Amino acid sequence: MPDTLHLIVDPAALDSPLSRAAIDRAAAILRSGGTVAFPTETVYGLGANALDPEAVAKIFAAKQRPSWDPLIVHIADLSMLDQVASGISENARRLMNVFWPGPLTLLLPRARGIQDIVTAGRPLVGVRMPEHPVALALIRAAGVPLAAPSANTFGRTSPTLASHVAEDLDGRIDAILDGGETTHGLESTVVDACVDPCILYRPGVITLEQLRAVCTDAVAFKETPRTRATAPEALPSPGVGLRHYAPRARLVLVGNSDEAQYTEFRAAAQEANIQGTRLGLMLADSFQLAAAGIDATLYRWGHWGDPEELAQRLFAGLRFLDKAGVEMILCPLPAAEGVGIAIRDRLEKAARTS
């Protein structure tokens, strides 16, 4: 494959000649069966025409993604939904009305035009309508729904900047559409809306409490050791039971709460220094004193009381510390509430050894 084309687009000026030319070029690549990384409000996605199995296969090849891992399909409007899904439930309609466009993926019965390669042979397909202006403009210009997982090597930390995409996929994909930093920084919430009650499989910035305001009895899927031992192709949804989002450095998480968490964080950092480990710290503001005198590379994560900021900066921090060459990353876990649940989900999967 020739060098990856880097295209610049301004989300605040989509009608400018530069932005229009970039989107038109990217759309033409997609219509011709190519692959384009593009920004969404969650993370950067790697897109290809969801109705073209040969184009979709290029996503799997570029990411080194196993065929058992299904893809999420992105649409620009409800008229495009008929090409992707059928038999839409009332629960799904209600969730669409409230959360689309936005960071919510719904598992829906797949339409005939969606081939096995997209869903890994499953009867349901993940669908979402992004709210990012560049993503919507690109899908509309291409005129086809886009299959688009995160634009990174399989299992690694998701990209929130175009430069992150290039670190993993430069020379492996046709183009990167650079629209700046993503808004939320975590992948979309994934919900099976074909069952009643709805099942939340992957937490995100749309929380279980928000889902229950629409579908009262919605429940969260509970992973178990048995789930993690299940063959990946038998798992019920993307993002379940897998080591994922992982930096190259060993990730060590500090749980507990309040003073105990602070004390454990400092003790773990001191022990790493004693062992001579090249240490990186995901340093929220409340833990600055715990890092005093510690020899470590610091990433200023954000305000501990602002989970949305922590979520938006999470993957960028893990990539920053990886690039700095640390051997171990020490990271405190936020409280298991609201968006903190999604942050913990990503960190716990990233810290798994298998």
CATH fold-level label of the largest domain: DHBP synthase
**Quick one: CATH superfamily of the largest domain?**
DHBP synthase
Q: What structural category arises from helix and sheet content?
A: alpha/beta
Put simply, the count of helices is: 11
Largest beta sheet, briefly?
A: 11 strands, mixed
The dominant shape is globular
Q: Please give the domain count.
A: 2
CATH class value of the largest domain: Alpha Beta
The rounded Rg comes to 20 Å
CATH architecture of the largest domain: Alpha-Beta Complex
Report the strand count.
15
Strand order of the largest sheet: 1-8-2-3-7-4-6-5-9-10-11
**N-to-C order of helices and strands:** EHEEHEHEHEHEHEEEHEHEHEEHEH
Low-confidence stretches: none
Helix content: 25-40%
**Multimerization state:** single chain
What is the mean pLDDT?
A: 94
User: Which percent range describes the beta-strand content?
Assistant: 15-25%
Q: What's the N-to-C terminus distance?
A: 32 Å
Pfam families: Sua5_C, Sua5_yciO_yrdC
GO molecular function: ATP binding; double-stranded RNA binding; L-threonylcarbamoyladenylate synthase; tRNA binding
Keywords: ATP-binding, Cytoplasm, Nucleotide-binding, Nucleotidyltransferase, Transferase, tRNA processing
GO cellular component, one term: cytoplasm
